[in-house]
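Tokens help. One example:
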Amino acid sequence: MDKLHIALVCLAAAHAIGFAGLGAGIGMGSGLNGACSGVARNPEAKGAITTTMILGMALVESIAIYGLVIAFILLYANPFKAALGL
């Protein structure tokens, strides 16, 4: 039971960081696409578009960091270990 528990926790941590990274990558790509299109259509608004894009990228990157924190909690703090009696 202990080896199965460790394997499942490792799998859950891998999924947490993997899906968070995938979502952040898709979101950043979409945001960069929109910013490039906006600058191409209206070059005078480059400063405002760039500022908004950098702020949006920081917020999207925080989602990936949340996934990393969840993976670390699962691997090292492991809140399910006491509930399972291990």
Notes: The domain at 9-77 is CATH 1.20.20.10 (F1FO ATP Synthase). The mean pLDDT is 89. Helices lie at 2-41, 46-77, 80-84. The chain is about 90% helix and 0% strand.
